Amino acid sequence: MTEEILIAGFGGQGILSMGKIMAYSGLMQDMEVSWMPSYGPEMRGGTANVTVIISSERISSPIIKSFDTVILLNQQSMDKFESSVKPGGILIYDNNGITRHPERKDITIYRVDAVEEASKMKSPKTFNMIVLGGFLKVKPVIRLENVVKGLKKSLPERHHNLIPMNEKALERGMEIIFKVR
Amino acid sequence: MMERELRLMKGNEAVAEAAIRAGADGYFGYPITPQSEILEYLMEANPYKTTGMVVLQAESEVAAINMVYGGAACGKKVMTSSSSPGISLKQEGISYIAGAELPCLIVNVVRAGPGLGTIQPSQCDYFQAVKGGGHGDYHLIVLAPASVQEMADFVELGFDLAFKYRNPVMILSDGAIGQMMEKVYLKPKKNRSTVIYDWATTGKPASRERNIITSLDLDPYAQEIHNQNLQAKYREVEKNEVRLEEFQTDDADYLLVAYGTSARVSQKAVQLARAEGIKVGLLRPITLYPFPSGRLKELSRQLKGILSVEMSAGQMVEDVLLSVSGKVPVSHFGRMGGVIPTPEEVVDSLKLKIIGG
Amino acid sequence: MKDVTGIKEIIKPENLVYKRSSVLTDNVFSYCPGCGHGTAHRILAEVIEEAGLQSETIGVAPVGCSVLLYEFMNVDVQQAAHGRAPAVATAIKRLLPEKFVFTYQGDGDLAAIGTAETIHACNRGENIMIIFINNGIYGMTGGQMAPTTLEGMKSSTSPYGRDIKLMGNPLKMTEIVATLPGTYFVTRQSVHTPANVKKTKKAMKKAVEYQKLNKGTCFIEIVSNCPSGWKMSPVESNKWMEENMFPFYPLGDLKVPAVE
């Protein structure tokens, strides 16, 4: 089993940390993982993206052009990375701020309106966990209990009180994700 | 034996943690992307409080490498790290360290050049790393990690080789491996060494002559003997320290030669090509100096062609050519400017330049 | 043989009033006749010997005339790259904090190519002694203009005299480092008369004490001569130094501890 994932959106949206939690979760499930960020000026406010690979085998190239799953969280990312989904792969996006919806017919498209949901839940910072929940619903590559373990590993201890809220967000994401086509 | 600890870390962080655990005595650095996490991690970890390891942010790369010189000449396990432009600044000091035969570890998390270039990953400093880099006839021992695990492991290996040969060792990494997170097993913490080396400047007791650390010898005949001794040492290194990894070479008709990030990409390329029925293998030099020329020469007897894959205009390919001395066609495929080649591109290039050629 | 000169009488142990420091090697100084380096080396060796620090000392030699300092000083010595001695010494002292660490640098080394290392080591307050020999010229490379060359002073790269409009002003490095919080003791001395030698030696002794007490950087400038580079006899060069160098580089303490 190898799952190659790209997550892209605005810097500061929690893109990199979402990838990190995924990677930690994979680690908790005894998988091989790699987390490769876009680094540099784009970290500071522009678009950010991260490649996460979770695999039962040794990961060869951590740098790839096409992905099993692509999670896109702003319009710039949509424009740049819609074409990066492997044929037959999955594209997950958040409707917030999207003016041009994905057009490809050879992939499965899901929507998880996490920005809206996070603000309804009055915890905008759990936005990325809602997205992650949605992803895990359609691609259950990691068990939820290992995600919680991964959260514990990747969050500093002083933030462990936030874990229940994040768990709730994960569950909410699983509920609200829906297939566009 | 204590169990190794499993962590998810960036390559840069792994270098820093491994340095503390390997019992390093000192780190002297200066910030530059994409390797600043090494200094940041060490400053946050504050190992002076636990192991006594000195961590200092120098005023420049030039000062940092000269601090390494000073510490190494005391027989201490000292290191620095930087990225390409900063490594260029360190070259004077590295030449002095090589000339004075001091042990130290230098980490280069390479970015694309020339000049300020870009902060994205590259392998464009191969020549600088393996052919000397500064002035004078000398070599560094150059280790090329291809994973976060090796970033950690090569710190201790690097120090061991540095002290074994009293020679500077470079870990030649790149921005991708420095910034990437992977799982890494960390070794238990070693105590800092208390050995006082008889060659080191630690204060002259009455029982021995004074120790002088210098790379200067004004007498050309004496200097030539020093040069000859250095060369003899390099021949020893070439004999003893070649390290490499092979992947599906047993039945290979074609061979990719690649190190570091390019080797990861090439391994995937081997899988893709094999799926198409092309019998291709991968040789990954782990030591770039000494270069695995012997094994390449041996393999060349069964091969129809070799493709050297690098994130450069073609530097290592020269060593591949020297190794096989024209016995088998050799070509180069690379991306530059901070672009990482894709496995598909490598396969296409193999077909175009080697199989079709 | 008959002792016609009476020398055997004179060298009797009971008549001994001075001997070569054991911290000097038997090598004969290679410095030009009349050069201040030899005297500066000697008193540095004496200070180390008198403090009982021979086995505890690590010196750092520069690039310049005193590059071969290790030929003459019988202590462990590292020879640093040009200008980098304060960085080298920084690491030595931090890794071996119990040792006595000094650098010995000329004006080209310390005040031109090594300006950054000098200022930052002093600003960090590295607990080392820096000896700065200022003779206003690059001696070893054959008398080129130094950062400290006086206005109008001739050198091989300022053959018509230093024109400050074209070549910039002579740099008062000692004044600069005296302003830095990391320096503890900053002084400017000379070694051209017995009285000045005594004062310089006293300054070095203080620096040794302060280093033991971890007080910070001690910086001792020695305004010196270069008979060969200045193209003068030793006596002329000392006179010229008094008349021209001292007015611009006045001797005395620039920074002393508030309470000793």
Task: Please give the structural blueprint.
The complex is a heterotrimer of chains A (181), B (357) and C (260).
Chain A (H helix, E strand, L loop, with lengths): L1 E9 L4 H14 L3 E6 L9 E9 L11 E6 L2 H7 L3 E9 L14 E4 L2 H7 L6 H12 L5 H11 L8 H14 L1 E2 L2
Parallel strand pairs in A: 1-4, 4-5, 5-6
Antiparallel strand pairs in A: 1-3, 2-3, 6-7
Helix pairs in contact in A: 1-5, 3-4, 4-6
Chain B lengths: L4 E6 H11 L4 E4 L6 H10 L8 E4 L3 H12 L5 E5 L1 H16 L4 E7 L15 H5 L10 E3 L4 H18 L2 E7 H5 L1 E6 L25 E2 L6 H21 L3 E4 L6 E4 L2 H16 L4 E6 L1 E3 L3 H8 L4 E6 L5 H9 L5 E5 L8 H13 L2
Parallel strand pairs in B: 2-3, 2-4, 4-5, 5-7, 6-7, 11-12, 11-14, 14-15
Antiparallel strand pairs in B: 1-8, 6-13, 10-12
Helix pairs in contact in B: 1-2, 1-6, 3-4, 9-12, 10-11
Chain C lengths: L6 H4 L25 H15 L6 E5 L7 H4 L3 E4 L5 H11 L4 E7 H7 L1 H10 L4 E6 L2 E2 L5 E2 L18 H4 L5 H6 L4 E8 L3 H19 L4 E7 L3 H4 L3 H15 L3 E4 L5
Parallel strand pairs in C: 1-2, 1-3, 3-4, 4-8, 7-8
Antiparallel strand pairs in C: 5-6, 7-9
Helix pairs in contact in C: 2-9, 4-6, 5-6
Overview of the molecule:
- The complex is a heterotrimer of chains A (181), B (357) and C (260).
- Chain A contains six helices and seven strands, in the order E-H-E-E-E-H-E-E-H-H-H-H-E.
- With 181 residues, chain A is of the alpha/beta class.
- Chain A has a seven-stranded mixed sheet with strand order 2-3-1-4-5-6-7, with helices on both faces.
- The two termini of chain A are 25 Å apart.
- The mean pLDDT of chain B is 96.
- In chain B, 40% of the residues lie in helices and 20% in strands.
- Chain C has eleven helices and nine strands.
- Chain C starts with 6 loop residues before the first helix and ends in a 5-residue tail after the last strand.
- Chain C is α/β, with parallel strands linked by helices.
- Chains B and C meet through helix 3, helix 4 and strand 9 of B and strand 1, strand 2, helix 4 and helix 6 of C.
- Strand 2 of chain A pairs antiparallel with strand 8 of chain B.
